[in-house]
Amino acid sequence: MTDAAEAVAVAGAEAYPRIVATLIRLTGDWTLAEDCAQEALVSALERWPRDGMPGNPGGWLVTAARNRAVDVLRRASVERRKLHELALLTDPAPTPGGEGDVVDDRLRLIFTCCHPALALDARVALTLRAVAGVPTADIARAFLVSESTMTRRITRAKARIAAAGVPYRVPTGSALVERLPGVLAVLYLLFTRGYDADGEPAFADEAIRLTRLLDRLMPAEPEVAGLLALLLFQNSRRAARRDYDGNLLTLDEQDRSRWDHAAISEGLAVLDRAGHDGPYALQARIAAAHATAATGADTDWAAIARWYDALARIRPTPVVRLNRAVAYGYARGPAAGLTLLAKAREGGALDGYPPALAAEAELTARIGDPARASTLFRAAAALVDSDSEREALLRRAVSLTATGP
Amino acid sequence: MKFMMFACTDTEPDADPTAAPDIERWVAERDAAGQRLLGERLAPPSAATTVRVRNGELLLTDGPFTETKEVIAGFDILECADLDEAIEVARAHPMAYAGRIELRPFDPIS
After folding, report:
1. For residue B73, pLDDT beyond 60
2. Chain A residue closest to B104 (CA)?
3. Could you give the CA distance from residue B4 to residue B76 in angstroms, rounded to a whole number?
4. Is residue B94 part of a domain?
5. Which residue from B minimizes the CA distance to A112?
6. Which pLDDT tens digit goes with each residue over A301-311?
């Protein structure tokens, strides 16, 4: 990447959501807002190498996008009132407290894209497109659909916002309490789409960037801090998750010197503001216990088991109960883990779920039955979709039979 | 913006029948707030008549236009700032518990 291209990318990442959010508020036109933001980036790529870097790259992009919007609207001869608003926008003297308005605009955009009246997939796609500025082609690849299908899906979501009457607003009071978890769920889903073994890695970075933005805009919301800390801890292991041949490694097998220790430090600092009772804060505390253990053997499994107790009380999902069983398997021994695992599986909740089989295999190996453990690892391998996960499970199965009695 | 609020029955109502709010109170509060312009309970679908004209001929059918277990039991016309306000109005209606509610904005072009 050239210096200019990199400068545009850096300034664009910061300015893009502000530009789009403000232009949507003023014009109500999502496509116009995105087009003008994109065109400002393209124009920066042409102008900055020729004319030199502007003193305030973000401000330059905002102004370029606003001017473009005024041009487009003027040519389309829209009603006088909107032109008047845009004329105010291009006023060289910004109104006092303008930064506050801009901050609100970005929050407005996030909450609108994540409105529960939109389908979950549409929320994730729209957030990627409108807030993060990810090209539609990249979103389509991650969702395993064609670009034209994704274009239609995003267009439909934008049309639905207008037609259904979804407001462009950040909810307050009890409505905020009700809506914030939905926004966090979209950001977490976005992260897992990037972090999964065969995911689109850039999405994990986008999710962290957006969560960081949300945390800056809503510093008093402990669950936002909790989610940010959780994402930082999980992402800190990204480079260490595979060996040099690309095979997936378990936490125990990873080279901890390859963890991103700057991200872990940031996560720990953020965790201070996250509280102790929200679902993301609790997951972040579990992740922190792993992230701060010098070796696998140093892991404070007793603490992790306690956090899982708290998490299982507020989120008694089968997966949480499975992970709690694994934690107890280390804190109190494999027999305790197998007992809790059997309880978590009651009613067939985890049938056909490969991590449940892999957990049973691991606990069975530690209890001293490598032959059965190996069979269970193979059964788990047969159920996973991802090639790299399957290979990791099969390697484990082979290692048990090779070192067996 | 104006919303048509359809109050429909549902085969799986809320498990706690005592949780549903009182309809008289809902009507009084929404009327006072200027959010409800008009509303009526409808006669059962057995009283419905479906009307079509095809090739100049009047065709009448005894019953509703579609046979489903869920039926429209009543309607209200709402005046709300946006969908969020309409959702708040709808969630306070007893049929959100005993049945389901569909919110449909008036077509903005008409």
Report:
1. yes
2. A164
3. 6
4. yes
5. B84
6. 999 999 999 99
